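Structure in, sequence out. Go:
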């Protein structure tokens, strides 16, 4: 019998389904019944039948229509989230696009839920087109095509929002009528079928943007929450919208841009930023479980090498680990041990995690500039290669910490973090999964920007491959999230073997959060839902939200003299007394 895992508030519920023709609405109410049954006060819900809720996929946050049948929209073991309708609506807000102020954060939030006019294009740029054939020429753009699975509705919304933002600058030769129809389609979530493969990032993302435009013209396939996938013209009609009718130059305006590269790159940057700061918290728990020292994070040490990311990470470790602010019984238990220093994977977290943060900040600045630029040619592709290489380090060092947690000769804990080893394998295979993801990332981190090919009869003879750079950067980030989810599970399991000793208050709060969705590992069980549940916590940034107040409070309470030394604190004026100068040849 198929079953589905449903997330309500902070609880995960397994809901079996005898008949796949039941609706999503049935699944939601069935999950709510199980949720209230487990609560002494019914979870504050008086009458399940009166609850108005929104159902959405846990992966990607795509909305599910309550009238859709389960067999049409879900697969066995899919994860679904139920949210109160009022809460879901309250999170929506208007965003005004002016072509200048959109950020990568805004763009990702939106996803939740003369040449080319009288001439041909590329190799045909010197072929003059008669006036009476201009309309046909404009339409012929859209013979461009991609292959592969379609982008998710969320990513297609980002793509459409970003194209609207660029056209809003007013430099692309598009009419207000066409732009307004694009905005109407976006607000109705009428989203074209855009395959993910097929762009080389030459004069931008010609092929995928052609698919985006086709749907707006009433051609090909489209999706909306109201209609699902259907012929584009019927989807537009169902929402009272008219297809776009292109004028000269508008075809080029719609397809010549870097919006697929940039929108996927923006998502990669935002997710990388979220997992990077949560990686510090996870590593701090691991250090506690492995009985490491916090001395390596002393502010004076890092002030001597003042890279911004490194200083920030060291400060977070100090805020979370044993101190006068938050004493740790675990730390106290080994205060006078004979260990001289910890392994690199623990004591060098500020150096490794720090440079990842600096890499993400660098990439985000480029992406935010590209988001608000009226340019047809890619400049962000090398930055996305850089991002993938940088953020991969979080998974590489995390996998080594998982090994230390699972290896009894390194952790002084039971092998693979489980009692009755042999009968139970514990985290053995989870560590293998982490190792495989790290190994896959090593291949994905090969820079796509070094692999240019000539296209369009050598007219576009040096292309960016930026679309692939963005897609694989996203995949690398997802693997990093999954590896760190496994480390967080393993670290919390390690705490079980140190009880009744307690760690610091902020780290105990993180432990409690994990235990709200995953029980301790007593004997072997199906681990995939546990990993998915903790991965979901990381995607929602709940680990960060729990620890952030403690980090901010610690940072605010730092005395001025204990803050890292700023390079601007030194005077660069000439010394009062003359000194001998050394000339370098």
């Amino acid at each position: 019998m198929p079953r589905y895992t449903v997330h309500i508030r902070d609880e995960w519920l397994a809901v079996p389904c005898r008949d796949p023709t039941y609706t999503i609405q049935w699944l939601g109410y069935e999950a709510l019944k199980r949720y209230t049954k487990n609560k002494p006060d019914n979870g504050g819900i008086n009458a399940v039948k009166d609850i108005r809720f929104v159902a959405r996929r846990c992966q990607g946050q795509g909305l599910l229509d309550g009238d859709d049948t389960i067999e049409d929209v879900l697969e066995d073991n899919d994860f679904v989230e139920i949210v109160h309708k009022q809460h879901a609506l309250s999170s929506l807000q208007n965003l005004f696009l002016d072509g200048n102020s959109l950020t990568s954060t805004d763009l990702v939030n939106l996803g939740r839920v003369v040449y080319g006019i009288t001439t041909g294009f590329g190799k045909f740029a010197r072929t003059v087109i008669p006036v009476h054939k201009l309309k046909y020429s404009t339409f012929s753009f859209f013979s461009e095509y991609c292959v592969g699975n379609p982008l998710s509705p969320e990513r297609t919304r980002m793509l459409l929002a970003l194209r609207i933002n660029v056209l809003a600058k007013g430099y692309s030769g598009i009419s207000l009528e066409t732009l307004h129809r694009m905005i109407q389609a976006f607000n109705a979530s009428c989203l074209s079928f855009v395959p993910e493969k097929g762009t080389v990032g030459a004069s931008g993302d010609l092929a995928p943007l052609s698919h985006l435009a086709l749907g707006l013209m009433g051609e090909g396939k489209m999706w909306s929450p109201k209609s699902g996938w259907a012929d584009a013209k019927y989807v537009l009609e169902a929402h009272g919208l008219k297809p776009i009718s292109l004028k000269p130059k508008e075809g080029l305006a719609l397809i010549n841009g870097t919006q697929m590269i940039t929108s996927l790159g923006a998502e990669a940057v935002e997710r990388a930023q979220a997992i990077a700061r949560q990686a510090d918290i996870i590593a701090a728990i691991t250090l506690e479980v492995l009985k490491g020292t916090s001395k390596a994070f002393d502010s004076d040490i890092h002030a001597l090498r003042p890279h911004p990311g490194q200083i920030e990470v060291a400060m977070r470790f100090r805020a979370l680990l044993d101190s006068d602010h938050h004493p740790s019984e675990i730390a106290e238990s080994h205060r006078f041990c004979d260990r001289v220093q910890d392994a690199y994977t623990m004591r060098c977290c500020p150096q490794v995690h720090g440079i990842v943060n600096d890499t993400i900040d660098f990439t985000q600045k480029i992406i935010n500039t590209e988001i608000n630029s009226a340019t047809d040619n890619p400049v962000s592709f090398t930055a996305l290669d850089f991002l993938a290489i940088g953020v991969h380090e979080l998974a590489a060092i995390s996998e080594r910490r998982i090994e230390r947690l699972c290896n009894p000769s390194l952790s002084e804990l039971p092998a693979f973090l489980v009692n009755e080893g042999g009968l139970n394998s514990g985290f053995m295979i989870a560590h293998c999964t982490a190792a495989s993801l790290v190994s896959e990332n090593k291949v994905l981190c090969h820079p796509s920007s070094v692999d240019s090919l000539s296209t369009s009869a050598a007219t576009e003879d040096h292309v960016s491959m930026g679309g692939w750079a963005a897609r694989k950067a996203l995949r690398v980030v997802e693997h990093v999230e999954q590896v760190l989810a496994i480390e967080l599970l393993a670290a919390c399991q390690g705490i079980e073997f140190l009880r009744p000793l307690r760690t610091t208050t902020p780290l105990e709060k993180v432990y409690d959060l994990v235990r709200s969705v995953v029980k301790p590992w007593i004997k072997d069980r199906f681990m995939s839902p546990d990993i998915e549940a903790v991965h979901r916590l990381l995607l929602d940034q709940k680990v960060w939200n729990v620890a952030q107040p403690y980090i901010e409070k610690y940072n605010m309470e730092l005395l001025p003299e204990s803050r890292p030394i700023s390079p601007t604190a030194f005077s660069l004026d000439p010394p009062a007394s003359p000194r001998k100068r050394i000339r370098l040849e």
